């Protein structure tokens, strides 16, 4: 005996009423217009023996329950998916992630402005502000800017900025500028960029600056890698004073300097070889400074005399940048030119000098050192330091120049500085503009600058110069050390010492 088995299904939009079908397949149709949502999932026809009828009914019920359970599960997933998208925004598309356009340059033009960005640092010394972006801004180009932060590809809300133009630019149209802003509460930023509109959508070529000097939670003193860093700015043109440079750096090494930072636009070929050697050793950090690609930098210090866009190839910018670059790593920073040596006269090293000065002048962050000129056309008469191995090395031999000018204190006389970088906010060349501690002028008999160069007071007669042989106190170690670095760079003649 055979039987035709029909499965019945339910219309879920009509309180699960059965969608009845006739046994006659040709007359099969929905129950009527009152069940518009009825769906016929399948129709199966089988011939079963009568002994299978009970099992067929049982299977029919199980399939019905399975269908209903599956439908409810899929419906709940669909509802949950829409609830999730309401609660959390869709992830940013790849074109909006900051990690794709991180600046690896020291100079980064800011989109839709005439400004150039240099670097960004964590700086929470000013209440309510977290980030200091160092830049080069056009003086007459004022517009509001907004900080946008990034962490792991996620963007913050834009925050307003405080724009602080330094008050010294020597008349040039571009000026050192600090852009300060706060990080939104609860956002851990790793990169920052500047926008000209508060609600701008970041474009694919938006460039991000890494935020340096991030806090690590350790004690500040434990983070200081160096005691003394010398900041030298800027090398440009065909400057090739190799011998004086080597003598200066080796003299600083004997005095306890750990690191020298140099901003390099260009220099002569022999000096470049020496710099590369020092850089490979780790004593010198070379910072590329291609400012000529973006501006017309001046070779002079005063706009009315030399013209151009920015003072001395951006000297003011590099001095400030070097302070922040060293802030987390160095106890003290020396700010001086490449042909200057800040020399202690009552101590044999800089640490002994600073220990004494800090005890005498607590809470002082800026120590002003008087500049003394040693005219390079006056030579020590015996010629004892006119060494044959240095005869083919380009540059000035500072050991041969022991006569100095007395400063004319009736007019402005410039100083250079030893600073605690964490107590400095803004600096100029010869003085600090903003700082958090005191300033102190160090007496010349305690410390002064040895500066071998062209005469400043050219009208002085030889008899009016004073003898100063302080460098000779270090000659036994200085000369072989200079020989060593020149030989390593392939610049020492065949008569050089082994």
Automatic annotation (TrEMBL):
<keyword id="KW-0472">Membrane</keyword>
<keyword id="KW-0328">Glycosyltransferase</keyword>
<protein>
    <recommendedName>
        <fullName>Glycosyltransferase family 92 protein</fullName>
        <ecNumber>2.4.1.-</ecNumber>
    </recommendedName>
</protein>
<dbReference type="GO" id="GO:0016757">
    <property type="term" value="F:glycosyltransferase activity"/>
</dbReference>
<keyword id="KW-0812">Transmembrane</keyword>
<feature type="transmembrane region" description="Helical">
    <location>
        <begin position="59"/>
        <end position="77"/>
    </location>
</feature>
<dbReference type="InterPro" id="IPR008166">
    <property type="entry name" value="Glyco_transf_92"/>
</dbReference>
<keyword id="KW-0808">Transferase</keyword>
<dbReference type="Pfam" id="PF01697">
    <property type="entry name" value="Glyco_transf_92"/>
</dbReference>
<keyword id="KW-1133">Transmembrane helix</keyword>
<comment type="similarity">
    <text>Belongs to the glycosyltransferase 92 family.</text>
</comment>
<dbReference type="GO" id="GO:0005737">
    <property type="term" value="C:cytoplasm"/>
</dbReference>
<dbReference type="GO" id="GO:0016020">
    <property type="term" value="C:membrane"/>
</dbReference>
